[in-house]
Amino acid sequence: MPRRLRTALLLSLLLPVAACGGGKDRPKGDLAAARVTTIGVNAYLWRASLDTISFMPLLQTDSSGGVIVTDWYANPAAPAERMKVTVSILDQDLRADAVRVAVSRQINRDGQWIDAPVKAATAQKLEDIILTHARDLRRAALPG
After folding, report:
1. Which pLDDT tens digit goes with each residue over 13-51?
2. Rounded mean pLDDT of the chain?
3. Which of 7-21, 87-101, 104-118 has the lowest mean pLDDT?
């Protein structure tokens, strides 16, 4: 998926979105490809997370601990609203429960940024996008 299209899709999903699918079944023969020892977390989830939020400025990344924190990002089409995302990769295996996303949102009222609620499905949809992209990366890396 082209980066511009993925960015547009992600921005449109930061509003009302659908819930994430489970995806517990995984190929048993791919266990070695799902393990990562060089960065401490699953490399496919790490790469997919960075790709998914690449349009946002990064504040902190820790590949050993599996944490990515963005700085505040305001969509140019909605400058009175901004978002901040934290992605946590919790396992070395490529599993649906190995990635967690937390989203913060603020709106500008009279020059002051105040916290605003985030739709619960927003974080779930981001997790789904990351998982789908990670699975695509893994499939592309498999021989044959």
Report:
1. 554 333 334 444 444 445 444 544 467 899 999 999 999
2. 83
3. 7-21
- From CA 97, how far away is CA 59, in angstroms rounded? 24
Q: What is the pLDDT of residue 6?
A: 53
As a three-state string, the secondary structure of the chain is CCHHHHHHHHHHHCCCCCCCCCCCCCCHHHHHHHCCCCCCCCHHHHHHHHHHCCCCCEEEEECCCCEEEECCECCCCCCCEEEEEEEEECCCCCCHHHEEEEEEEEEEECCEEEEECCCHHHHHHHHHHHHHHHHHHHHHHCCC
CA distances from 50 to 103, 110, 116 (A): 15, 33, 25
Size (the chain), residues: 144
Q: How far from 122 is each of 61, 86, 91, 109, 125, CA to CA, in Å?
A: 21, 13, 22, 23, 5
pLDDT reported for residue 3? 52
Q: Which residue has the tokens 């985030």?
A: 118
CB 134 within 8 A of CB 45: yes
